[in-house]
Amino acid sequence: MPDKKPLPSDNIVSQIFSVRGQRVMLAQSLAVLYEVETRVLMQAVKRNLARFPDDFMFQLAADEFGNLKSQNVISSWGGSRVLPYAFTEQGVAMLSGVLRSERAIAVNIEIMRAFVQLRSLLESNRELAGKLADLEKKYDANFGVVFDAIKQLMNPPTAPTKQRIGFVQD
User: Would the pTM of this model clear 0.90, i.e. be above it?
Assistant: First the structure.
């Protein structure tokens, strides 16, 4: 049976969440992408646990999982009693080594592209936010000039002084 084409990276980006200040993918989402059962994926991880330190993979706390579910980011996975595992970008990269299939390699390439795309998007948003802040400063300064001009127009004109025209000798 030939491997199916991996999902485009923009579909994968929607499966990347922010948990504990890190961008992660959940084991259930990864299992779907790799076309394996979640328990098979986790068995491969547990057989190679030394490859997955805490900064590569961690188990969600109940409140973290509840928070993701309450935001409608993820749905319930049909009665699983175990809290899901989250894999950071480095953990996802390590998965291709423990799953050892053509599908795992192809999917990992797409996932890495998705993480790069997400980083690029976040960086462009940072640049855009900086430009917006600069515009706001400029806009406020220009508005100050406008208000000063309006205030001058609202003040009554000063009485003109009579000036003599021509050459005056002392």
Answer: no
